[in-house]
Amino acid sequence: MRLDDMRRSDNVEDRRGIGRTGVGIGIGTVVVLVVGYFLGISPSTLLGLLEATSTQPAGPAAPAAAPPANDPQVDFVRAVLGETEDVWTAVFRENGARGYPPPTLVLYTEHVDSACGLSGAAAGPFYCPGDQKLYIDLAFFNELAQRFGAPGDFARAYVIAHEVGHHVQALIGTTEIVEKARHASRPEIANQTLVKLELQADCYAGIWANRAERAHKIMEAGDLEEALRAAAAVGDDTLQRQAQGYVVPETFTHGTAEQRARWFRHGFEGGRLEDCDTFNAAQL
Q1: Of 9, 37, 263, 269, which residue is least crowded by CB atoms under 10 Å?
Q2: Whole-angstrom Cα distance, residue 240 to residue 267?
Q3: pLDDT tens, position by position, 90-112
Q4: Which of 203, 199, 173, 212 is nearest to 84 (CA)?
């Protein structure tokens, strides 16, 4: 992945090393987080608690800090985030919006407080609509490569772009509509709605890759395959099979491996918002 021409974002907040101690996480919570592991809107959403996102964080807000300039992982994150800002600013302008308010990306270790509550690193990267911030423990990228078998810089870029996709959904109003529909539906219908939301975020990540490649030729040989491998590696069926040896489709919240990879490719090949209407698609 070529980073040289990508603008570095200043919207990165470093909270690493400010982890909270003495936090109790019950076994039931861990089970929920493992099943919903990776690329969710937030752990609170998976637990059906997103209605609390309008409240303030449970603990005192950590002071904002600029990440060190000489950290290559942070430089990578700033480059990818900057490219998402440029891409979505252009897409919003094309669709008649006055501007694109970018999210802040928060780096943390172990635990972090957000407007969605206290979250542990085991939950994976997430987006919180309540404060419009992305949260990532950089150790997850090692997990992505080693546990999920999806190494590579473009796989990591996919993770960030997916979470930014949830920010786009929040700005457009999709997230609020989906949450209202979920709470008014039976559990199996609510889960299907979540799957559509997640697959749309995968598709939005594909739009980012399409636009970034057209603008700056960021992709190298094998990059598309890295993103597709990452998307497939975190499909609900893959994760459930690894965790328990069998799959329970009615409990899916993110989509199958095939669906996730296909919708990322769909966004990558089309590059337009209208290519990502998972809610009215004939086939998920």
Answers
A1: 269
A2: 26
A3: 999 999 998 999 999 999 999 99
A4: 212
